[in-house]
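Section handout 9: paired folding examples.
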Amino acid sequence: MKKKYLFLAMLAVGTLLAWSCTKEKTCRCSVLHSSKVRIIKITGGNCEDIKLLRYHTDLGVLKVDSLLCTDYEFAIDSIYGE
């Protein structure tokens, strides 16, 4: 009987860990030396690990932004209700 409860508890913890690891996060990133803010959604990892954003403009020019990212909500999020 104790083994059954232990197994169910381990299964619940494993399920919780698997679900929390695959949960989508919304990262808010400020572009260094600019007033721009980037919102990036990731499915794994930490927001703090995002340091660079590479993208192409409409004219095809490659741009690179240095970022400081966090998963904490910005005050402006309460206005727009993401």
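Moving on to protein 2 of 2.
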Amino acid sequence: MRKLIPSGTLRTMLLPPTYGQHVTHSTEFTVLSVEIWATGLVVNIHLASDGGPEPRIILQDHFGTEYSFRESATVGSRNLQTFTPSVPPGTRSLTVRSADDPDGRPVVTFAVPLMAVPDESRSPQDGNYQESRELRRPA
């Protein structure tokens, strides 16, 4: 399971402000959380039943960032899906949609807290990586 988790540090975990349930004729699932890692995102999903179909989801933010599905793992009724990249600095919201919903209705929308922006002058590879204390939000 470790291979599924993005590299880097866990920056924050988003919990749904409302019950993030999605029900259609082909799938039923509930979004439990989204983990924001330094290098990607992990969406934690509860399936309606063990062995239920893996939901196909789409992530969107208010910037229009292209999030790419990387891999998925299902154990019992729990499904984890990873996406890259991580949220860009200043992201205000992140919406999960079902790719199978012809109406494109949101399953759940998360408010993304203002986070420190990584210091671009340092890298994790050289051991001098640390996050800047400067917070930025686009105008």
